[in-house]
Backbone:
């Protein structure tokens, strides 16, 4: 993180560009690459704005996995939002879009896995929703194992926290 909230190194306001604080907000909103202001992630910008401290990532003694098919009407709405020029008859445009994409986008699945304060999201289209769910769970399991191995290297003493650990930490506050 940058120590100076008005970091002159990244301030272009004198040349008619954005100030550092404006760039910080753009990064936090996901509208600018964090590397342009010397940061690694948008979370770094959010933490600098809010003054929050970065928390250590940890897995918990629980895992939740959620997955669902995205309704084609939602996909049509997302496609409409991406258009530069909006159609005059939006209802008909959405109906046409759904008809044109009913086979290709029929089983688009989103998934979310959480453990501790770590999460992973994925989105993929399948030819069969149940087989898609199974494939997403397999991929989530692989990601969980990879993240666990990574955390064991970074924090060999405690790569995960139990609910009892969290309750004890809350009691210390």
Residues:
């Amino acid at each position: 993180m940058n120590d100076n909230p008005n970091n002159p190194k990244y301030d272009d306001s004198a040349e008619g560009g954005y100030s550092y604080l404006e760039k910080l907000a753009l990064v936090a909103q996901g509208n600018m690459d964090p590397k342009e202001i010397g940061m690694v992630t948008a979370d770094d910008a959010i933490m600098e704005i809010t003054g929050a401290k970065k928390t250590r990532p940890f897995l918990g003694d629980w895992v939740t996995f959620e997955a669902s098919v995205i309704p084609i009407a939602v996909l049509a709405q997302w496609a409409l939002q991406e258009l530069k020029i909006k159609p005059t008859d939006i209802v008909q445009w959405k109906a046409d879009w759904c008809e044109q994409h009913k086979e290709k986008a029929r089983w688009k699945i989103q998934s979310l896995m959480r453990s501790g304060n770590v999460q992973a999201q994925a989105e993929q289209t399948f030819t069969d929703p149940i087989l898609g769910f199974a494939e997403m769970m397999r991929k989530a399991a692989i990601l969980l194992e990879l993240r666990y191995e990574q955390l064991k290297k970074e924090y060999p003493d405690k790569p995960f926290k139990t609910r009892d650990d969290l309750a004890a930490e809350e009691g210390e506050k």
About this structure: The radius of gyration is 22 Å. The beta strands are 59-60, 64-69, 108-115, 118-125, 160-161.
